[in-house]
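Per reviewer request, we include the raw input and output of the structure prediction for the construct analysed in the revised manuscript.
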Amino acid sequence: MAKPLKLTLAILAAVLAIVAGMFLLRQSSAPSQVAGGASGGALTASLRSEPAHYNRYLDPKAAADLLSLLMHARLVRINRATDELEPALAESWTPSADGLSYTLKLRNGVQFSDGHPFSAEDVLFTARVLYDPAVNSALGMSLRVDGKPLVFEAPDAATVIVRFPSPYAPGLRLLDNLAILPKHKLTGPLDAGQFADAWKVGTPPAEIVGLGPFVMAEHVTGQRMVFARNPHYWKKDANGVQLPYLDRLTIAIVADQNTEALRLQSGEIDLMSNGDIRPEDHQAFRRSAEQGKLRMLDVGIGLDPNLLWFNLGESSATRAALFREKAFRQAVSYAVDRDAIVNTVYLGAAVPIYGPVTPGNKTWYSPAAPQYPVDRARARELLASVGLADKNGDGMLDDGKGEPVRFSIIVQQGNTIRERTASVIQEQLRQVGIGVEIAQLDQKSLFQRWGSGDYDSIYHGAQASSTDPIIGWSEFWFSSGQSHFWNPQQKTPSTEWESRIDALMHRVESAPTLSERQQLFADAQKIFGEELPGIYFAAPRTTVAISSRVGNPQPAPQIPQLLWSADTLQAVSR
């Protein structure tokens, strides 16, 4: 009995330490506003991966997304701290009476980082790149309504009209991902069929032109990317001070999270691009905060939880038929104690969840979705209902052919949270007679296995681009979506319940009021919770840490939690 008691006390001590830390970070979580909008100075942030391409239209991953935020600008943007739509390159817009088009008035005097004037022609060029089949941009698939592209028109150099093919409730929020490209720099490569060769990694930084707050000054592969202030940046603060405040922003490439945490605590870096603190780092960061070396900011419950999904596609896997049994998936959900994951994996810095929308997404979360508190008796009943029983008395279940019930979970190698959660799932499913093997693969190999359908189940996560389910997660909810993980890109819905979700999501896309959209999406969440194509266990409480040199932080729950507004960050002398 001594060993379990020792473990319990250790967990309790860790949880109490985090709770004490929560009080501290509540005291320091208010953004520090630097008087007078002080400009100058430099900060260093960390990034765990490097871009495969400098052009966001050709690289959909997080590193290229960060580059896009730093070097480019949009017509409009979603303020990630308030979730409100704001003017950007377009200073105002007017919707048509039928809501199918918007007329945007562009700002006067805006220039690219090389001094070339920006106009509506650059918007039309960007739209051409977006939907060009030769470019085949992943963004082109996401910026569609009912599978059809938007239409962009320019009646004059200062006006853009955006036409939607059908009613679309989020409206211009869809354009938050549309980084405007320079026509004068990229028309030649596009016309020559060499667009992929323009702005590839290794391109001289001076060739990369944008409308964002920074320009790339240097990229040393495997070490750092350095960004300098864009002298032609169009944006000013409320006092008329030209942004960005920083003269220089260095992005240090730090793949290892242990090293990343140590470098932040030692002052070598000022913030992390993927800024949430791992549970095991809370105590060390709290000590540094108490010493005044850094500050911890409580951002709230995370928006992008991990999930376990089974292969529900056309698979030759031995257990494919079993995976397609709703009762089996529900049994797995009932068998796992979410509080155990919260307390042992996240050390208390998380909340139990039962679906893809977390309580952190206050607009779209539905508490009415089905929940699965741990109930192993119920799990065993469901498993028995699909013909599984312990036929040889070894404590493990067998199927109708006498074969043991086992499956594998693929998890990303090196991701501590995912590896530990998979281990908890493995142990807890063993208690109801299900054997689980864990296969740790690097991320590239993991996605290769997923893409080929060569897997039983995967425990992984994804990053949404928006809190709105139609913008950020349409590819997840629609059966035709690339991110419909358990059975992607279906030509027609393979199940009746997926067809019902498709129908609901189309209505979420076009319903005229927010309350109607919320109710429809709540219905979709309910179906998802009943069918459980993906099983969710916990959502972390997101805490970010910054050095005492970082001024005016505006933390948001979406990644990158701080660099989404890099132009307003300041370097403070202490």
